[in-house]
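#struct-help
A.M.: can someone run this one for me? Single chain, 266 residues.
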Amino acid sequence: MTVVDYDLGTRNLRLEAEGPILWCTIDRPKARNAITPSMYFGLKKAVRFVNASTDYSALIITGTGDVFAPGGDLGGRYEEGDTQVPEGLAHECLPFITIRESQAPVIAAVNGICQAGGLLIAMMADIAVVSERATFRVPEVLRGIIDATYAACLPAHVGMAQARDLLLSARKFDAAEAHRMGLVSRLVPHDDLRAEAVKAATELLQGAPECRGHLKRMLNMQYPAIDYQTMFLSLMNPQSEAKEGMMAFMEKRQPRWIPENLPLHD
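D.P.: on it. Structure tokens below:
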């Protein structure tokens, strides 16, 4: 593969090309690939780049080591060299809808731990090709975060009963269960992940682009509206459960809403 010289606004995302296929690798191993605001915005830029390009026709998103992406960095931190997200943007900096509505095919090659925003990336991709070693979780409720994208989109993928279970319990589950419930479409041996992701992209690129775009638009009509207003009003409120949940996480303690003497299970 060859390195692609395009500024995504962060050194924690790498772009490489394999013929007409562009790879975007989430590469922040010191923080277990936790996604900063610049990285979320950079993923959005990567999708826009491949859609505007005459050299590349599909995008594959993957991670490094044993982590795809565990979701957002709860500290909201920027790192040296990061371009800050434009002031005033809220949900607009997130890549999920941009991935879902991309005219160019987007594949998620899920190599390991996949949670929160990382799982939304996989869900919104056209095809999620998943290593047998991958693990999943929807942990936002544990942090007091009202995740509007999950509330709107998860039932469309797995049905209401499964969505209630995953969203409200925040339990962990493995790749086999994720595939069985229909959350992801392709489960593959870990060593075959990259080849299978390229195969998926190649299959999609054999379809007529305009036809594929209209089919995607009609599929996306199955999703309801996303209540980002409630989500971001909560995140901005200094007295919200989200603020308490994030502080508890940073301070490595239990959130104050957990009842005393509650028997806890991992």
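A.M.: thanks! The chain is about 40% helix and 15% strand.
D.P.: also worth noting: Residues 37-52 form the longest helix (16 residues).
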